[in-house]
TrEMBL record:
It comes from Deminuibacter soli. Keywords: Coiled coil. The keyword Coiled coil applies. This is Uncharacterized protein. Residues 278-305 form a coiled coil. The keyword Coiled coil applies. It comes from the Bacteria. The lineage of its organism: Bacteria, Pseudomonadati, Bacteroidota, Chitinophagia, Chitinophagales.
Amino acid sequence: MAVKCRQCGSFPDSALYGSIPEHANDAGFQVVAIPSAANCRSRKQTLLVFMPQSDGENQRELPGSLPGHSSGLLRVHGNIEYDLDYRSNIDTPYAEKDIYQHTIQTYLDITVKDQYPVRLYFTNRFSNSSLFKNFTNLNLQYNPHAFSNSVRVALKNELLKRTRFNDSIRLTKQQLDLATTELLKLEGWKNSPSFFQQELAEKNARVLKSKGVKLPETQVQWQDSITDLRRELPNMNWPGKTDLGDVDFALLDSIKAQQRAGVNNNVAADTLSLAEKLKKNEQLIDSLRKKIQLLQAAYNSQKSKSAVSSNNSAVTANSVRTVAELDSVMRTNHIPDSSMPKGYRTLFAVRSFGVGRNMIDYSELSAKNISVTGVEAEYNPSYYAAVATGVIDYQFRDFIIQRKNAPKQYFTALRYGWGQIEGNHVIATYYTGSRQLYNSSTVLPGTVTPSSRVMGVTVEGNYMINATTALTAEVAKSSLPYYNNGGTNPHSAAGVTRLGDRSNEAYSIKINSLVRATGTRLSAFYKKYGVNFQSFSFLTTGTEQHAWMLKAEQSFFNKRLTITGAIKENDYNNPLVATNYQSNTVFKSIQATWRMRKWPVISVGYFPSEQLTKLSDSAYAQNLFYTFVANISHFYKVGEVQTASSLVYTQFYNKATDSNFVYFNTRNILLNETVFLKRFTLQGSASIATNSSYNLYTLENDVQYTVNSWLRIGGGGKYNRQTVIEKVQWGYKAEAMVNIKKLGGIQLMYDKGFIPGPDKKLVPNNIGRVSYFKIF
């Protein structure tokens, strides 16, 4: 190692091994401080010592490892939010005034003992509307994805310990470090004190010899002669005495020091001249360089193999999906159970567990897209088991509508099977409960709405044709409706066991595939329902029905252009329509999207649309029509200013007779421009809506200003002109966002605008919002 005084720059006697390389830190050296040596001229500072760094890779903690022990039982992260929304007028299909809606919501990620993750959701929504549903959601849910990911990370870390930092790599690294250190010493010898001392000693010797002074040959003689020379030379009277000034008597001591210290690392013996030592030094340098080259090549090769092995370890860990696969990897690599959380085998096989409101999506013919307040759990080690039970709250498509005096609906399901839910499996499902089949929202007031028990069984099989193609088929048989069960008890399961009756059966088959060679995504299904079939995923009854769908997605021009197309028939269920509702309409949809770097994104689509209209307190109407949408959006810079532009064209293909939408058969063009400055965000838009009756022209602008880190304010104006009334109507908007440290954020917004009203006129509509949120 090389030692140098930080204060005076001198090299003590114990540091005659070479100078400090300028690139020391870049060459893998570290700097440490030690007390200064007694022979340092400053005598009070520290010395800088440059030493090869140890290979700390084997001590480095790998990213993503399981969290360590914490002092507390729980660690909580999440957010809480409160919203108050006000509408002076609801849009025409609902026609309500002065509606206040409150929403309280929280989402918490809770980790128990730093290893076991759960999630807590809570939502409470209530309003003064007679139409919109008031509800409270509470769900405490085990987070299987977070836990399984933490197990995979722990597994990867254990695999890396066994494959990445092995003994051969460490040994080669140590040898390489020693050789590199030796090379630095030899290369630095020319600039070391020992070199300068011998060079000056030989210079002094040449001067003395030129004056006729006989030099000693041994170290003892040197020690005696230096003393004599210091005493006698000034008194000697011989020619050229004045030339003795060329002799540096102070440096004569360096000759003695050189003889005493010797030359480092076998550079040369004491008897060698400086030229001979330089030659020997160069030979050693050449030899070390060749050795370092070989060691570096070996080290790089070993590291490369280790990197491949590490990558394989990561792939192996990430590919583990089942308990059997996890056990196999741990057993093969001799990984102890102690490296994993307690109970990891059981928890790794839990696919879901929730208490409170749970979304159930089991199969096409048993229960799909329903919300149940109760308990739900799925467990899938080598076999599959699931249970769910509770009260049905709403389905995805009708949760907005508030039903008055609707009978309670209950749901219970038991599932058991073999295989993995993501792979090949066969699962049998038994479902039962009570559901409202007979459309309480469409019957006349005062009419008794019967409610009956539903019961059924299904068998579903999934087969992975290859890694990207899955074929799923399911058959089901249910109990008979109360009006067609032969007068038996409505709770009877006789219909399920009546094997000769096909009217209460249903069939489903679907396929999903990705063609990797072309990047094509394909999906299709076909479902057939008997006239008496009942389940919690099929909303209508009383008529034999079928539904089918074909969908394809394909990319072109190196994924710049993506085209998605679909065609389907009767794939729509709504509890608000008649019991024997059946649609034979074939819906088509197509969408094309173009993406290219530094160019605008262009998207064009043609989609079926629907509108639900309230006709009375007990009746609703559904209207179906098509919509064409095209848009161009671009995010770019003008100088140093960031800008976003979008142009949207929309057209509804409907008529006044099939829709309560005032803008029937309307074409709309919207241009929006946003400019992002340092503290300002400027937004402006212009739109034109045209149809056979009138034109509507709208201009809007909005300015937001960031005052500081905790305050943002904004506002804008609106211009509306409709050709029917030929009157300009003005609106405005104001908003503010305040972030209070440790308290949270508060958002205030008020908007005066207009919505379609009677006689094709615009009526005022005031919107207000107060929002509070806190992230912790």
